[in-house]
Please model this.
Amino acid sequence: MNPRLKGYCLGITAAATYGMNPLFALPLYSAGMTADSVLFFRYAMAIPLLACMTAIRGRSFRVTRRQTLTLAALGLLMALSSLSLFLSYNYMDAGIASTILFVYPVMVAVIMAAFYRERLSPVMIASITLALGGIGLLYRTGDGQSLSLAGTALALASALTYAIYIVAVNKSSAHSRRHTAASGRPLVAVGLPRVSGGVSDRIVVCVHHRRDPLHRLDSDGHTGRPRAGDSGGDRSERFR
Model:
């Protein structure tokens, strides 16, 4: 399959499946579980699966000391993003909260333009405007009530920390070597803080156009800017 087409398919699949979070979280809330406990057990089950995928693909688990610190910071960002989103479900409709979360590409574009001098094309500006306009239409719920301020703040905090995570991975050394450090490793890198705090991490697949260096997904599922000499099927990692 063409790497670009594969990237779009994986991105669509990731967005669709991640949007199903409330389908499983809300019944667990009704059963008495809290947001942090749901996240902890969710990713405790994900770690073995990621380890198996890493081993099957022949990827290395080795990281440098610098990468370990970077991955710990990335894991903390993702833990905060996950926890903020799942807490927001307690204050507003889960569908609206999840929709607000997906404002994070706008935040990423703004961060990259403001701090890294990346040019915003007319198409990107138009997309940002449409995205913000669509989210603005959600200011009232279906029964005419205004959105919860606390829920909205938590959902936006989740989007912001996730956007910072994407930029941090893109700019850090976590993806400088060809292994899965920047995908599955943050789950382990912040394992101790998450066991004590009961929060966890998640993996995100982001897709961008070939000419946009921000989020790129290669044929192996890695994302990031290509380095000099990299070919289309051999792009090293990133975040997202």
Notes: The chain is about 60% helix and 0% strand.
